[in-house]
Write a structure and sequence with these properties.
Length: 345
């Protein structure tokens, strides 16, 4: 890793803002509040095995999934940290069925925050890396009024900032505000995020693929063929690839962002729309990866160009190094073309 100067997240945000004379400082303050909430979540994640916070609450979330106690702690912490700062008009969380309005007695701001409070929560009890994913938009309804569903249902190309925090051997915040991707590692000694990865660029081509191969039977024929292609030996194209699948989107994409490769959560015959959420997971990750020089699609269309119809909408996703994503798109397109020829015959 190239040497970077000593710079806190707060200072970096201010310096980035100075490059844009029209900036008001609101986004910087919003990101500062968000980073504070993630520090508290990080503290709880790191001591989760020592207190009564692991395990299920006994409730199900809007998706019918059992809710982990730490999930709800992270959700509540983000809401409590963000609802009174005066920068937001509404929030939406993967854990809530409806949008989260800003209380009327607080100032109503011009931004919208969407978040997955604890991605990879099925791994909590196994002490595997998990994370928080966030996405920020400017409102589209009139200023001063409470935010609406319309403010939340914007395509990913409208994002003004996005990022994630990974809680692993160290806690790291990675974000973009449309001017590259930067990573900050939390120094627990004095509780500050310090710049550790300046201008992250994902390699054009990697040697790692991440996918749950237990679902192979139900995949698109083109995807099956692509996976077999990756497993073949061919030194000229640097195959076979290595497979790495953690089951936590934040952890899998963080690794591929640094080293290159492709993460896939496709549609299948049982889940024709995929399983990951467009607004809370796929759009923010697509923004990050594209800013780092990568690519993110649903196999046919750019993720960030999809017009959302529902706040909890699911989509397939293929995301990572540009050449790897283009290759899986090629295999799937060829399979579709062959299917049409066969049906006509």
């Amino acid at each position: 890793m190239s040497q970077v100067r000593f710079l806190t997240l707060a200072r970096h945000i201010i310096e980035e803002e100075r490059k844009h004379p029209e900036a008001t400082g609101e986004l910087s303050k919003l990101l500062h509040d968000l980073s504070l909430a993630t520090k508290v979540i990080s503290l709880e994640v790191n001591k989760a095995g020592l207190v009564d916070i692991l395990g299920f609450t006994g409730d199900n979330n809007v998706h019918g999934e059992q809710v982990k106690k730490l999930d709800m702690f992270a959700h509540d912490m983000l809401v409590r940290a963000m609802d009174h700062g005066g920068h937001l008009c509404a929030m939406a969380s993967e854990e809530e069925e409806y949008i989260i309005p800003i209380p009327k007695h607080f100032h109503i701001g011009k931004y919208v925050l969407l978040f997955d409070p604890l991605d990879g929560s099925s791994n909590i009890d196994a002490n595997v890396s998990i994370g928080t994913i966030f996405s920020i938009y400017k409102r589209v309804t009139p200023d001063g009024e409470p935010g609406t569903l319309e403010d939340c249902l914007q395509p990913g190309i409208k994002q003004v900032a996005a990022g994630y925090v990974i809680y692993g051997s160290s806690t790291m915040l990675v974000y973009t505000a449309g001017n590259g991707v930067h990573g900050f590692t939390l120094d627990p000694a004095f509780g500050e995020y310090i710049l550790s990865h300046l201008n992250i660029h994902i390699p054009k081509k990697g040697k790692i693929y991440s996918i749950n191969e237990g679902n192979y039977l139900y995949w698109h024929p083109g995807l099956k063929k692509y996976i077999k292609y990756l497993q073949e030996e061919d030194p000229e194209t640097h195959r076979p690839y290595s497979t790495r699948y953690i089951g936590s989107m934040v952890a899998d994409i963080h690794r591929n962002l640094l080293y290159g490769g492709i993460f896939m959560y496709p549609a299948d015959s049982r889940h024709p729309n995929g399983k990951l959420r467009l607004m809370y997971e796929c759009n923010p990750m697509a923004f990050l990866i594209e800013q780092a020089g990568g690519r993110a699609t649903n196999g046919v269309k750019r993720i960030m160009e999809i017009q959302p119809e529902r706040i909890h909408q699911r989509v397939p996703i293929f995301i990572g190094s540009e050449e790897d994503v283009k290759m899986v798109e090629k295999f799937m397109a060829e399979a579709e073309a062959n299917k049409k020829i066969t049906s006509k015959g």
